[in-house]
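Appendix B.2, paired examples.
Example (i):
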Amino acid sequence: MRSILSLLRTILLKEIPVQQPVSRLTDLDAARGLAIILVVVGHVVARGAVPLDNEWYLTLQKLIYRFHMPFFMCLAGITFALALPQLRCLREVTVFSKRRVARLLIPYLFVGLVVLVGKLIAGRFLHVDNPPAGTSDDVLRILLYPVSSVAGFLWFIYVLAAYLLAVPALFRFFGRRPLPLLLFGLLLQLVPVPMLFMLDMAVWYLPFFAGGMALWIWRSRWERMTDRATAIASALFLLALIFALPFELPKWLVGLLSIPAMLAWAQRLTGAWQSALVLVGRNSFAIYLFNTMAIGVSKGLMLTTFSWNGVNFLVYFPILVLAGTLLPMLLKRLLCVAIPAAARFL
């Protein structure tokens, strides 16, 4: 019994290593590429703007929303852990968090206000999804209730900024230990949390973010998943997708089962497929920031020519997915050339 308790204590108190990888990890970049493409596909159709006679897309969108953000948040936890430097004092923690949070919130606020102003102007000439009310409430929602604002698609950045603000400080006092944070996050699921400052979403996704950090600690166990492990993980995930909607499987369960399968698939990609996904993954932040705008503008222009209902949506769908993926990458490149300082935020 003592040996078991000692083992559990060792596992529970294991810290994130200080050593960082000497080069970028292509499998994680490819996994981010997969995740951000799922985000783009899910954003092709906005709330309340459904193309008629295309139930297949609605089913696809519902399935994607059952797992893609838990997987994305897990990847964010892995990335946070692998890049976490040794912070020796509270001042270093403050400087680290301040810089990381600024790199997230400055683009968040800039893009949020651009979307707000852009929708107010474009709404006079084109179809606009989730139009603003045109009052000061629009700005307050961006600041206080992001998910219900005109820039609701940026909520992930807001929540990630909250983690980068709080987690390094917690680690400073309790060690670089993600498993206690994961357990604490699970306990918080029992507590009602308000929507203000996205606290509800920050609490809900905390186990996935902390779980990602824990995965980094034991990366040697899964960085080269065997064929058998990949087959089992894939089968469990596919079964979850099959039964997710008919049996209303919870999002946390489908999201949890997606993680080993998606990581294994990213490891097995080779050649042009891997290169393409790595490129997309390394531009995932810019794609996250700008994909909805790219999709919205492209759709608005196309709607001036022909409807997207019925079979026409088969034309819209690939064009909007490509627009949501490639146009943000192009915009990032143009911005970094025109404004070199923008590179640190994109």
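Example (ii):
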Amino acid sequence: MTVRYATLCKGCWQQMHIPVPLSGVLAAPLRAFGIRRSKMNPNLCTICETMFERTMKARSVKLDATILFADLRSYTRLSQSMSSEAMVDLLDAFYDTCAAAIWRHDGLLNKTIGDAVMAVFNFPIRHADHARQAILAAREMQEGLVAKQAELAAIGSRFGVGIGIDTGTLSFGEYGRSHRDLTAIGPVVNMAARSQAAAKPGQILVTRAVYEAASAEIDAGKCAEHELKGFDAPVMLYEA
């Protein structure tokens, strides 16, 4: 599925009703001042990446958002059995497929961490159903990666991806002193990461909070308790 990028920054328009061009002749003067498409979401501009700092006068903000983690399974084994060129093709397919799905649902591709990605939904582009948007993006990732399997069959790449999602209140901002890192922190981030770790290849696991926010997208019968690292009691996770 082809990604079509917005011609105006969706974040600036939604938050401030300011039309900031991202392409065409009107965008050229802005690029001279460093205003261009964000690498986290090309439908946003670089102003949006630090919107909380410039418009809210804070290093971090509290917000209601959904966090998604997706991890390429058996990366170490694959890297030992494949050529470096094949691994590049595999990672390109993984990153490109995940990014396209995240951006189509107005998520922010906040991190690429080796063989994993982290996305934030509901900032800076707001959606009342951000938990549902994360689920839809996760399903598109899995469907897209299944299609990529056939393309990569010639180089012997058999892979799977596990996805975890949680939603709730978190902090988003710049952290660190010698090196500033723009990211989200809090229990929601930790739970999404642990849920991803529990997911099998091809599986999407979501928390109770996500189920309550997007119950129409989830079969209540497809749930089970999981022992998650760092949690004393088993955690109920739902398959989406």
